[in-house]
Design goal:
single chain; alpha/beta; 7-stranded mixed beta sheet; 6 helices; 36% helix
Amino acid sequence: MKRILASLALAGLIAVPAHAALTTGATAPDFTATASLGGEQFEFSLADALAKGPVVLYFYPAAFTPGCTIEANEFANATDELAQYNATVIGVSGDDIETLDRFSLSECRSKFAVAADPQTAVMDLYEVENPEREGRAMRISFVIAPDGTILSAHEDRDPVAHVTLAKETVASWAAANGHAGH
């Protein structure tokens, strides 16, 4: 049966998803990556961030492009609200760290970190590399609970939708776990 399905897929007779990003309920893979916050480079550790609270991990195609700029601006606007629940925001792209130094200052407004993933190691862990644009991430966001469980996984071209869903998911998690905003 597997051979038949594989043959049909190769022949283009059935659709096979080009990617299989992690889904709600899965365990988020741990990672460290070189990141920039306010133009200052550091090593971001997912495990360290989760020790403080939930993490909003979002992947975006490229710094300084229109959609990615909107998304960064919106996450910068939402950072204080998310911080009420001890949530950390981290953006990841295939850009080099020097580009992200500038992006973290201008578009992220020094409110949250962005990590460089030019070798796509983190993208590979989360299965989010764009199959049509090698080295670039799809626009997808994850909200991860402190225990490492993915609370939401959202793929959408609309950059604002990611921020809205992240805020709703973090607030819902906080209410369900007795973590009122402060």
